[in-house]
Amino acid sequence: MQLANRICAVLALCLLATLVSLPGLGHAEPQRPNVLFFAVDDMNDWIGPMGSDRAITPNMDRLAARGVTFQNGHTAGIYCAPSRTAIFTGRFAPTTGCYTIQYYPQHNPDIVPLQMLFANAGYATYGVGKLYHHREGFVDLRGWTEFFTRTPEQRLQAYPLKSWPFDSPILPQPFPYSPFNAGREITGGLYMEWGPILNENEEAMADTIWANYAAEQVGRVHDRPFFVAVGLYAPHFPNYVPQKYFDMYDRDAIEDVPMLENDIDDLPERIRRQQNGRLNHQRRLEELGAVKDAHHGYLASITYADAMLGRVLDALEAGPNADNTIIVLWSDHGYHRGEKHWGKHKLWERTSNVPFMWAGPGIEKGKSIDATVSLIDMLPTFDELCDLNDTQSRDGVSLAPMLRDVSQARDRKVLLPGMVPEEYAIMDAQYRYIKYRDDAEELYDVQADPHEWHNVANEPAYASVKAEYRAAAPSTFAEPGLVARQQMRLVTNGEEFYWEPKE
């Protein structure tokens, strides 16, 4: 009997040794986390996780309950293309020269962008929707296992989004719909345009198709870790979403935004002249009695974007990847809705403060962080959380320590570049300092003045504060690269494309 027991013990040890030596078993390295990278466009802080009760966002609420919400997270550029360039390269415009509509792979071909870092680390990479600038010729195709388009023609046209072409059969009727544009011939963008579409057309919307694609990817079995990146156009103008999302709001109960009469009087003269024109939009809306209507369209679009997030989260949670997927939700900008301005492209709080939420394995649950951070921090954070082995220089810092333990959060000064060299904001939890290229300045004590109504830059008591924040700005600014479509022409060759300088 003893001999038999010894033989069994030896066999058991041999079996254990064999199992340990098999790939994926024993002491094999744990699988790196998957990533769901979810972008929205022009969404400000009107959402529950950021302390607002304006928008109805049940899916952002549940994401916040699962992870960490940054209350003081800021965009990395005040225009669409430079914001997204900064995110994918991990470098601000003063480093890359991409201040407006520059195509970063053309000007910075040696930079290994985010999706390539994932691909080089063994990830399957799937991209869809508005991850880059929406015009043709701006998608960086390097490193993607697949970059999805809704039609084959888009691949032959250098990947334009074409979210709302003027000949779309699902446009609201009449078109244009909003009273701001009623009776006008729209030949360019659909700025200040909103309206309901038929509920039955929701599945034909570009954002819905993109969300469904992302849901399919995160919900299926993969043979290696994945990076699934999806960008929605909502709530960017036009605010065209199904009627049911408009119906979720009582239009008459929508509150106006906090505004101060003569708010722009203390701005530098050049900026004040510019803003007078933009305030004409607010005056026109007031004359039309359409201020609430404009907010109604925006809120409906936020709730629609939230529903698309819900589709992807549902697929993730019902599938095999629920427990090993990091989720990050971000918006490329905020949006001014009458406060000083209608739009973005400015160095103020409403442009810069954005939804920025993380959840997943190793990340604290149901926590909020007030420390100042930037979207530029995403690349180094992924590098640490996903072991991407990025050896490049970069402008952000990893947020991983504070995601794992929110008590590690520390406030810091963060850069927000303008659209030309030597124009920028430096902000933290106490102040926002703005410097323009002509040396004009603004300074706001955002603790005492969260709406940035009182520019104290010319008050002598704040001279040392201005000096401290100027010292945190870049010491050099790259010259702007050639502007696509203005100084460069797009050349297509089948599904390939490139930009070349115009003569």
Supply database-style keywords:
503 residues, alpha/beta, 15 helices, four-stranded antiparallel β-sheet
Question: What features would you describe in this structure?
Answer:
The N and C termini lie far apart (93 Å). The model is unreliable at 1-28 (pLDDT under 50). The chain is of the alpha/beta class. The chain is built from 15 helices and 20 strands.
Give the topology, please.
Elements (H helix, E strand, L loop, with lengths): L1 H20 L12 E7 L17 H9 E4 L2 E2 L5 H10 L3 H4 L7 H4 L6 H7 L3 E6 L16 E3 L3 H5 L37 E4 L8 H13 L7 E6 L7 E4 H4 L22 H20 L2 H28 L6 E7 L4 E2 L4 E2 L5 H4 L3 E4 L7 E3 L3 E2 L3 H9 L13 H5 L9 E4 L6 E4 L3 E5 L5 E5 L17 H8 L17 E6 L2 E6 L2
Helix pairs in contact: 8-11
Structural class: alpha/beta
Radius of gyration: 24 Å
Task: Give the mean pLDDT.
Answer: 93
The rough form would be described as globular
Low-pLDDT parts are: 1-28
User: Quick one: how many beta strands?
Assistant: 20
Strand content: 15-25%
Largest sheet composition: 8 strands, mixed
Distance between the termini: 93 Å
- Spatial strand sequence of the major β-sheet: 5-4-7-1-9-12-2-13
